[in-house]
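seq:
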Amino acid sequence: MKLGSKHTTLLVLAVIIIVAPFFFPSSYYFRVGSLIFINGLAVTGIVILTGYAGQVSLGHAGFAGIGAYACALAPVYLGVHPGLALIIGALLSGAIAFLVGRPILRLKGYYLGVASLGFGILVAMLLTNEAQITGGPDGIRVADLGIRGLLREMGFRVKGSELWYVLTGICLLIGAWLALNLHDSPTGRALRALHGSEVAARTVGVDVARLKLQAFVISAVFASVSGSLLALQNRFITPEVAGFLHSVEMVTMAVLGGVGSVLGAIFGAAILTTLPQVLTVFAEYEYAVLGLVMMLVMIFLRDGLLPSLAKLIKGREQ
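struct:
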């Protein structure tokens, strides 16, 4: 049976997640892999918002910060399990995105980008200034998820880096599956229609405002879960997770790999997550390189690296 694009994407991701550890020279690469999966989950949300619906957000790291700090604060102040705190953070992010998205999604182009940027900066400022609750710039510890201890009691010995590689890989597969199912659904087709032309979509009966808000809320939940996973893995979090530069990283990853493609965006996340780990000598110039990469891709590879490579290979075959 011929596999469709959705099944092919999920199959490719699953194969990479399963096979990659056989080529890891040390356990350190399990951590790098889990960071790729966490960032891949965040950029999958960007694909839904920007690639499907055509809306730009420069403040999505704010939702990652909400998810991260929910996992840090909810167990302390509400007495809930960190896993439940992740769900609370996702629900809170979705609710805030619903409230914030209604007014700012009326804007278009760079006005929308600036408005979303303002939201992200506001969240980062709150996390930094409310030091009595959040720990301020120094950050705050995050409770242990407890899965490793549970596995140890059951007789399974597993390293923390390997456990998080598996957990984040599963989360990425679930996120990709949801995004791909949305792409093929009537809602996904309507989102792509308004991406092409809001006027034309409205003419044929598409509720443009409602769909844009839905895409914004869904992408916010993706970002929140990615922030929660990062906090739970590191057992520590700082306001940088909600900072402007993190938002820029998300958008750059998606654009680099191909913002219209789930697999392409994850590919971009893999590249920009791996390079700083490998080329540590250029750490001081990381954001300058990000800006340069964004400019070059937008000029020469408008569709992103992976879609452009696919078109090149297909053209040669013909």
